[in-house]
Design goal:
Chain lengths: 217, 217, 217, 217, 217, 217
């Protein structure tokens, strides 16, 4: 069983959390491809670049470099990961053939790391994508504003896409975007969205549980 | 003045047309970045791959290889183009610094060549993108079905996006997609859509004319 | 047992045939290195390039790109092939160490894909090269012109080279050239030439049969 | 005149400072090679890696990635810098031939960025290295502990090396190490050490002033 | 005027000679592409490899590495050469666009450096190839054996090819082979063969003289 | 058990010796990383470069190319070595994951091959480094000058470093330098220094003997 884990860049703000994710990944014997976001590091550097007049292209490249630094940190904590951070899908494919774990950051400007995670899932032939997100599940509305917002443990892709397009979901773009959704949907990949502060959910999901939201086609 | 020219892959079905585009590009002294689609060649190979069970990832890679073959053909017809086909935005940036003309195909799965053209325009700091398309202009409706369809020589991005989202525009995805539109819009790049069978329109546009549709922010 | 299969580019004109070759390669458990020619695709693009004044260097590079597109198509149809198209012999060697199947196109201008196949056979330590050719066997004369032309099921390298040098053999250069012959001969690699429209001959040859011509040192 | 500027990684903690250095580099028309350290970013990530049991090799690679992120940020703020971060001296040489400004981070484990700056100075044929340091000059003793410490505006390499070897100099290793000193000395490169919080000192030094310490052979 | 200079590897046995060639290349302001052979260094290493059972592939690769070491030495003696040794024709093309001098060694197994020189001449659009050879001119027969051997200052390609094919020419294969001859002939490149121990002949040839043998189409 | 073997470049002056080392490496089933020096070949080429005014950077690069030619020769004599010469630590790490034997030369200017051997030992997680040196053991003084010099079969790192820093040890820099010593010490890697003309000592050391000097932390 091959799974893809998308780690929100925010996880890398918390050293403890990164170490726990490394432990989790080491402990489960499945083939795992991890995609890391750039997080606060990326935002900080992009903000400085923007202030100084950098082009969007360079802002994107900076975000990618930040995500790769996060990826390399995770690699350094694992024993058997491919020792480099692949920079495009062909490098990923090559590494995936002979390593149990491969960790990537961004690939190219114009693609969010959520999209990269979806492309990696497609390339890896993974049937499952675990999204360690900034929210603990998908809700019908922003639970921080609307106490009546309904927690949605199961969604079909159509429903999920509708919610993502609306602006009521916190995390918005960083959770998923319509592009990544379309790639995942066309391969009928099941997505689990769970609270990124809870690495133990990876084990729970691999055992068949659903600690957050499960999206199917 | 730096311009980007997006050449629909269909142009490469017609040897005469390719030769004329080469002549046009050689004759105008401006800095030009060209992005070539995969065309019928890509479609044919992708169809064979699909039949044989190839993954979407490989189908995309095949389309990219086809677009790069088209790009190389064009390079071979120009005297002063960067002699290689850049495979990502950093290679493009590097080549663009020291060559008047750079010709690219696709970069990575998950990005249409329309998106690549938009990213290249952004990276090149181009103010204008010329789209040698499969239609001669943008219409309010499909002119082949509705004789009353109105030819639209000038559009704002909002209007253009609305039309693209609707299914009434022939060419649809291959013309532009919402992703490329958003990249172009955020850099306020002017887009000219014209009949790809008329290479002479490049000169017309450079002279300030508008033979098809002009889209501005 | 490691074998090399040289696929004439013409095979890629026929979708059915490509799919059958993929099946054949998947079914035999031996280590296989495949080298694909550029075929009609290459000829068409080279012709356009030549018309437009492209240098011989670029014409050769175009032929190489075409052969690599064919190679990638084949890779996409196999499950366990090295996922990239090696571009030189060192990349081939690296891939060959850890993959059952590796598919290459051309390497460098100045080398026919027949020569590349010979170099790959040498590098792979293969004892056998299967040439899926445009003719079904080697004849003493062009059988299409001379009905008395003798079919030659067994040849020594000397005899084969004499026939290749003479102009009576259809296919001529695309079959083999003196350079590839000398590389094969110095490693004493056995060559089987068979009808490229008959993928089932691969299995026959692996079972010890000789459906066309067998060349030994 | 070609100069090398070594920017302590700490500069990248201060967005204002980075923007000012970008302005300074843009304003002086000389050929400039910049080498950026990893700073606090590197230390933070290396510390996390170390906690999790990462090898020294990976700790070094993480430091290098951090320094390259800093380098890329600086590149994004300049208009005419080589658009990539060279990863070794040959890439640097290639970029240096055709760009006024090149910005590098670390190259390989086992080399401090101070050493990289020295190697780059040697490769670039620079006669001057400007070290934007964590101290404002070299002192005979640690001025923070010994109020009688003497500020040393001029030093010969011998004297400087003696001071670096002793532990009384704050900044120690990050300022310079004996390896970088030997490389600089053998090429008789003049080093200016100045307060890294004062980008305007670059201009002063280029005008012939000495705001901190000047080291000559 | 662009010229290609082929330097026999034997030149690199003589330090004085290498230094003189560097001076010659520096002094003439024309665009020069140099291709260096592996010489005695290659022969010694290949012999050791062969003794130890190395494959032909590796023997060829060793010869290529040796030729590249020679190339790098020459680069180090020139001020404005492309700072790297291109490893294939595309790298050569890229370097040739922006450097007055480019120095290459071998490219791939299966190609003599004479062939590489011919391919480089074709790619560079050079009209002239200067072959600093192991003989001082072409003779009708081996002058060391037949005192009546006629020195041939002018030859057409047909005549030259006939002589090369016969075994009477000393140097034989290392001078030129039929493959390089065919590439040179199809581009109508003029070849000058002269005594490799006389670097001053380069200047003579550039001035219109013919110190050895001149071959034209 | 993973070991690193550092082969002095002088070994490559003696064809017999190289063949014996190849045999030794093939016969022991352990994972071995080999680092080869440039030897006399490097010295000869560097001397020529220096005479002609080459920069230190190019002198170092020439030394690296020479060491890589030696590495390739050794690779060609082994059956299962990674088929390429890694050029930096990341390439080494990648190769080391899937090959029993990897052979490298130098990586970057500014690092002796002794330092590269130490970095490779650190990256490979090796506990032992075997240094096939130009001396048969470490002595308290130069045994060629002082007949009373004491042979030292066992040393701690402190003692060894003291001896290396003093000028009394023949071989000096080429044996080890303080930089490599510090890398080895921080990983507590045991070093065996033995007579490089005696390949059979590798087997002896693997069997637990100490034919020369053993250095521990």
């Amino acid at each position: 069983m091959a799974v893809v884990v998308k780690l929100s860049g925010r996880i890398f703000e918390d050293e403890e959390l990164v170490l726990k994710y490394a432990e989790a990944i080491k402990s489960y014997g499945v083939k795992i491809a991890v995609v890391t976001g750039g997080g606060e590091l990326a935002r900080r550097y992009i903000s400085a670049a923007k202030r100084g007049g950098a082009s969007n292209t360079f802002q994107d490249l900076i975000g990618i470099y930040a995500s790769r630094l996060n990826a390399l940190l995770l690699i350094s904590l694992l024993g058997d990961a491919y020792p480099k951070v692949p920079t495009n899908i062909e490098e990923f494919l090559e590494a995936w053939r002979s390593h149990r774990v491969v960790v990537a950051g961004g690939f190219q400007p114009g693609q969010s790391t959520a999209t990269v995670a979806a492309l990696v899932a497609e390339a890896a032939g993974a049937s499952v994508l675990l999204n360690a997100a900034n929210i603990d599940a998908v809700y019908s509305d922003d639970p921080r504003k609307n106490p009546k917002a309904e927690r949605l443990p199961h969604l079909k892709y159509d429903e999920f896409e509708r919610i993502v397009r609306s602006s009521s979901l916190p995390g918005g773009y960083e959770l998923m975007d319509v592009w990544s959704i379309s790639i995942l949907r066309r391969n009928c990949i099941t997505v689990y969205i769970f609270d990124g502060r809870r690495p133990e959910h990876i084990g729970a999901i691999l055992r068949g549980e659903n600690p957050g939201t499960k999206i199917t086609c």
